[in-house]
């Protein structure tokens, strides 16, 4: 098993933002359930942070799909490593809407905005722990 976290920039803007997010969640939950992939998705300031957990081949196949998805651009893998247990095993794709605790986390790390590409490995692990503790949203808020 492996975990892979990436960031990307959305190609869509308001007013279609909620519809695109809803579509992405529906598609990812269906695909992930069929391929035993787990993870979490956070979207803020026009950027996605998504962490995927599963068998290496399945995660790689999913990343190929994401790279072809016209709703994403500037995809950058920021963390990838083997794991023995999935942190987000309870979710095919947990979605966390823009929440104050995550804003607080970035401020505590001396960042004025959501910028996951600036985090160290340790900071990213702390962020993932925070995301694990937060309640997930069914769709988007």
Describe what this molecule looks like in 3D.
The chain has 141 residues and is α+β, with helices and mostly antiparallel strands. It has helices at 17-35, 56-68, 100-108, 121-133, and strands at 2-10, 38-44, 47-54, 72-82, 94-96. It has a five-stranded mixed β-sheet, with helices on both faces. Strand 2 and strand 3 (47-54) form a beta hairpin. It starts with a strand and ends in an 8-residue tail after the last helix. 27% of the residues are buried.
Instruction: Compute the number of strand runs.
Output: 5
Please outline the major beta sheet.
5 strands, mixed
What is the count of helical runs?
Answer: 4
Quaternary structure of the protein: single chain
- Helical/strand content category: alpha+beta
Helix content: 25-40%
List the helices and strands and how they pair.
Layout: E1 2-10, H1 17-35, E2 38-44, E3 47-54, H2 56-68, E4 72-82, E5 94-96, H3 100-108, H4 121-133
Parallel strand pairs: 2-5
Antiparallel strand pairs: 1-3, 1-4, 2-3
Keywords:
5-stranded mixed sheet, 141 residues, alpha+beta, 38% helix, 27% strand, globular
Summarize the structure.
Helices cover 38% and strands 27% of the residues.
């Amino acid at each position: 098993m492996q975990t892979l976290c990436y960031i990307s920039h959305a190609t869509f803007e308001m007013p279609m933002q909620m519809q695109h997010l809803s579509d992405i969640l529906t598609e990812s939950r269906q695909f992930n359930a069929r391929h035993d992939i787990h993870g979490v998705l956070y979207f803020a300031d026009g950027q996605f942070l998504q962490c995927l957990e599963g068998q290496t081949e399945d995660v790689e196949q999913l990343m190929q799909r994401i790279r072809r998805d016209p709703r994403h651009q500037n995809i950058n893998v920021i963390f990838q490593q083997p794991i023995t247990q999935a942190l987000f095993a309870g979710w095919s794709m947990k979605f966390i809407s823009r929440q104050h605790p995550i804003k607080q986390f970035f401020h505590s790390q001396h960042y004025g905005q959501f910028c996951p590409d600036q985090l160290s490995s340790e900071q990213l692990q702390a962020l993932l722990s925070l995301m694990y503790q937060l309640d997930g949203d069914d769709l988007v808020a």
